[in-house]
Design a protein that fits this description.
Structural class: alpha+beta
Shape: elongated
Largest sheet: 4 strands, mixed
CATH class of the largest domain: Alpha Beta
Strand content: 35-45%
Order of helices and strands: EEEEEEEHEEEEEHHH
Strand order of the largest sheet: 7-4-10-9
CATH superfamily of the largest domain: Nucleoside Triphosphate Pyrophosphohydrolase
CATH architecture of the largest domain: Alpha-Beta Complex
Number of domains: 2
Helix content: 10-25%
Distance between the termini: 46 Å
Number of helices: 4
Length: about 180
């Protein structure tokens, strides 16, 4: 299948340690020249932590960008030289002090494919024990909440989990989570 856009040139016009902005000069499908800006993000892992007693651990984070407290599942950006699973395990440890007995890769989706190439890689972590003190990054303000599977799925369906990737990850795992809850 042919691509409807033609890229004439690309350049990074802004960057920081977590992402950059690539500006492409393009030819649109109708033949006109244009400019398209793409936020390039290395991707991230989102982890649904389930404890041995069947609770799901949510975090409640203050998000400066939207000036709100948001329920989410632990997540974090991929770092150079790290596998997806290593990233998932590191984020569990940093954000909730958790260690998983088992970590299953569920799949991926794009978080904002109109402006970004970020892929969300979803993991289901089971047998999660909160064995360590969380060590969040300086910009992370996090509360930890253990909730039943039914409550977490109700929250996702009721839009009480406003972080899109977290809500979608939970809904993608809804059947597995219900089976675990018995």
């Amino acid at each position: 299948m042919t691509k409807p856009f033609k890229t004439e040139s690309s350049q990074i016009v802004w960057s920081c340690p977590w992402y950059n902005v690539r500006q492409d000069k393009i030819i649109t499908p109708d033949g006109r020249p244009g400019v398209y800006n793409v936020v390039q993000v290395p991707g991230a892992a989102w982890i649904i932590p389930v404890t041995p007693d069947g609770n799901v651990i949510l975090i409640r984070s203050y998000r400066y960008t939207v000036d709100a407290w948001c329920y989410e599942i632990p997540a974090g950006g991929l770092k150079p030289g790290q596998t997806l699973a290593e990233t998932a395990r590191q984020e569990l440890l940093e954000e909730i002090g958790g260690v998983a007995a088992s970590l299953d890769y569920i799949g991926q989706f794009f978080t904002s494919n109109g402006i970004s190439n970020e892929a969300a890689h979803i993991f289901l972590a089971t047998g999660v024990m909160l064995e360590h003190e969380p060590t969040p990054e300086p910009t992370e303000v996090i509360e930890i909440h253990a909730k039943s599977v039914s409550e977490v799925l109700r929250m996702a369906q009721a839009n009480e989990i406003s972080d899109g990737p977290s809500a979608l990850a939970l809904l993608l795992c809804a059947e597995r989570l219900r089976k675990m809850a018995g």
